[in-house]
Structure formats: structure tokens, C-alpha cells
Amino acid sequence: MATLPVWADWLISFFVLLGAGFAFVGSVGLVRLPDFMSRLHAPTKSTTLGVGGIIIGSSLYFSVTTHFSAHELLIAIFLFLTAPISAHLLAKAGLHLHLKLISNTQDLRKKPEQYADREAD
């Protein structure tokens, strides 16, 4: 097993811990937040940053120990392209299904009824 320089150890540890912290906050938000829209917000923002931090740490580790690998870069590109798209589609599905929102969740559309797929209840 190769020993890393001290600066690389600290930098890799920083990014891995930063990523783990963001992923943890996103996971707690997914469990604790009250309605669908706020639950959707927590993992799409912070967990994406969490995985990004871990991927940066992994990329740094393999760049220092062996050689640069494009695998981590490809994973990051795929993640940062697909996470916002899937979150947008889930949010639109939630709006069209009229999922129950708490009173603090604001619907900022001018005429929400025009987006409804069914008759108003």
C-alpha cells in the first residue's frame, strides 16, 4: 500500500468528509421534512453535493497514488446532469397529482388550476 503525502491525506480527507456531511444532511432532510416538495429538495441539493465531494476525494486519491482516471469525472458529469432533470420531473408529477402540501409550502403559480390533469376536488 502506497503512503500518501501529508497534504494529499488532508485534502482527500477534507473532500470525503465534506461529501459525507452533505450526504448525511440530505438524508436527514429526506426523513424529517414534512411534505413531498420539501422532501424532494433535500436529497437533490445536498446529496448531489455530497456525492460530488466524495468523487473529488476519490479522484484526488487515485491521481496521487496511481494515475488520473476518467471514471470519477464521468460519474460526476452523469450525476450533475441527471439529478436536476429527475428532480424536475418528480416535482412536476407531484404538482399534477395534487399531492398534499403543508401550509408553509407556497404555490407560486398564477393559476394552479390550469395545470391540473383532473377536475378540482
Automatic annotation (TrEMBL):
Keyword Amino-acid biosynthesis: no
Keywords: Membrane, Transmembrane, Transmembrane helix
Gene Ontology molecular function, alphabetical: sodium:proton antiporter activity
Pfam families, sorted: PhaG_MnhG_YufB (PF03334)
Residue spans crossing the bilayer: 12-34, 46-64, 70-91
InterPro entries tied to this protein: PhaG_MnhG_YufB
The keyword Isomerase is annotated on this UniProt entry: no
NCBIfam families, sorted: CPA3_mnhG_phaG, PRK12674.1-5
UniProt protein name: Cation:proton antiporter
